[in-house]
Specification:
9-stranded mixed beta sheet, about 40% helix, about 300 residues, 2 domains, alpha/beta, Ubiquitin-like (UB roll), 3-stranded mixed beta sheet, Rossmann fold
Length: about 300
């Protein structure tokens, strides 16, 4: 009887389902704790997809043949886009330039049209145009209709500089503009000469304005020792000006000429290097006349 009871008890226990332990395993516990960390969640949300994509790209690019094929396809697509009609430049327009300067610009740039706008370095073209002496500033842009438009601001010649054996047009800053074949080509501009005259153009222009009463007799301005000016007139007359206050000294000479016809006399030099003690040098005719008169009086 006791054995039967024990057998029935074992069968009941066997038939009864085992209750599951609610406590998590150690691995599950550690994983749950790890998922609570912010950097882990950020990595799974952003870093892991990026890592998978980068790994795939690296694997694909590890083959040289695939890389070359991709570059060829990319170059072909780029060429097709660059050579579309709307991106082609077919003409060049040079605005606000004289014919000679426009010709020099076309020669310097030497562009073989038609050309894709993607192949044009606009900043490089602008720098090339501004290397010309006659160009002060330039702007380059591509206009609708496939026209390369170049607008230039030319330098304005202010004086003629006799540089050794050449005649050079200079602007008011002393920058070269162009060479000149003959002085008579630009008789409206003053002539300067001498070493250092090109860096004193502004003062020469002021002297030119001050010499307006004798403009018809003016031959030019000579820079002496790179520090002062001589005003050269016809009949071999010369006005020697001081190193400082040259404009004031020349105005005094003009006042004396108006009052006493100073420059109409037979003088070779009016020396105003010392404005407090001006010196007059007689011409050869006046010297001969003076000596003849002196000998006759004796």
């Amino acid at each position: 009887m006791r054995q039967m009871i024990q057998f029935r008890s074992k069968r009941a226990k066997a038939a009864r389902p085992e209750r599951r332990d609610p406590a998590p395993s150690r691995l599950s516990y550690k994983l749950n704790r790890m998922m609570l960390r912010p950097w882990v969640r950020r990595f799974l949300r952003h870093g892991l997809p990026v890592l998978i994509v980068v790994s795939g790209v690296v694997f694909w690019a590890s083959d040289q043949g695939r890389r070359d094929d991709a570059m060829d396809r990319l170059a072909e697509v780029r060429r097709q886009i660059e050579e579309r009609p709307e991106f082609m430049v077919r003409l060049m327009s040079v605005e606000d330039a004289t014919p000679s300067v426009a010709s020099d610009i076309r020669e310097v740039l030497s562009i073989d049209f038609p050309v894709s706008s993607f192949d044009l370095d606009l900043s490089g073209l602008q720098e090339a145009v501004e290397t010309l002496d006659a160009v002060a500033e330039a702007s380059v842009r591509i206009r609708s209709g496939g026209v390369l438009e170049i607008e230039v601001e030319e330098r304005v010649p202010s004086v003629i500089w006799r540089d050794e054996d050449a005649l050079v047009l200079l602007d008011m800053t002393g920058h070269p503009v162009a060479t000149l074949e003959a002085r008579t080509t630009r008789s409206d501009l003053p002539l300067i000469a001498g070493v250092g005259a090109d860096i004193a153009v502004a003062e020469a222009l002021e002297l030119f304005e001050a010499a307006e009463p004798i403009r018809d007799r003016l031959r030019g301005f000579l820079r002496v020792s790179e520090r002062r000016w001589d005003v050269v007139l016809d009949r071999d007359q010369r006005i020697m000006l001081p190193e400082g206050a040259a404009i004031t000294a020349l105005e005094k000479v003009m006042a004396l000429d108006r009052a006493q016809n100073l420059l109409e006399r037979d003088l070779s030099v009016v020396d105003f290097r010392n404005p407090g003690r001006p010196v007059l040098r007689l011409g050869q005719g006046a010297v001969d006349l003076l000596f003849d008169t002196g000998f006759q009086s004796e």
